[in-house]
Amino acid sequence: MHCPSLFREERMEILHGLISAHPLATLVTSGSGGLMANLIPFSLHEGGDYGILRAHLARGNKQLDELREGAETLVVFQGPECYVTPSWYPSKAAHGKVVPTWNFVMVQVRGKARVIADAGWILAQLEQLTGNLEREREHSWKVSDAPEDFTEAQLKGIVGIEIPIRAIEGKWKISQNRLLADRQGIIDGLRAEGGCPAMVALMAHE
């Protein structure tokens, strides 16, 4: 990934925080079938130098063939993002030498996946994932809320994957290259238009 040093994020707690907050990621593989990509929700677990990703795919997903062959994997987690208009920059009025851009944060993870067919492992991953996503809800749903025979039938249709993280990169492009006045102009513009409170929070605390 192209990432100028100004935008590089290397703090592991920040990188892991984005993964946990935005678990739906693009799983990209490059194998004998060429490039393949799917949106998959992941759960993050401790282990190794950088952590372990776990997920499940539909048994009929052709990407499983690539993973079984040992295909290289890239997992892309996308956080808050927003379009930035030059109209928000005070410097526009001063010299006009400004262009539109896009602010965003993302994490890219690389590793090789292990395909897992064990129903107990897959059930534990489902419980972990749904537990993470449901924990803030007043009436949280649990896997055990579904009838046991229904859950068993569903488990037969999915396969687990585990990716020990070999490399992890973060890019936080939130206008660190702009003057403070321009950065404040973006924050004010987003607030005025009611756009992306998460991006406003990131920029305000940078």
What fold name goes in the CATH topology slot? Pnp Oxidase, Chain A
Question: What is the CA-based Rg, rounded?
Answer: 20 Å
Query: Which structural category fits the helices and strands?
Result: alpha+beta
Adjacency order of strands in the biggest sheet: 1-10-7-6-2-3
What does this structure look like?
The mean pLDDT is 93. This protein has one domain (5-83, 102-177): Pnp Oxidase, Chain A. A hairpin with a 6-residue loop joins strand 4 (43-45) and strand 5 (52-58). A 6-stranded antiparallel β-sheet has the order 1-10-7-6-2-3. Strands 4-5-9-8 form a 4-stranded antiparallel β-sheet. By secondary structure, it is an alpha+beta fold. The radius of gyration is 20 Å and the shape is elongated. Helix content is 33%, strand content 34%.
What are the main properties of this structure?
single chain, 34% strand, 206 residues, 10 strands, Split_barrel_FMN-bd, six-stranded antiparallel β-sheet, four-stranded antiparallel β-sheet, Pnp Oxidase, Chain A, TR_PAI2-type, alpha+beta, 7 helices, 33% helix
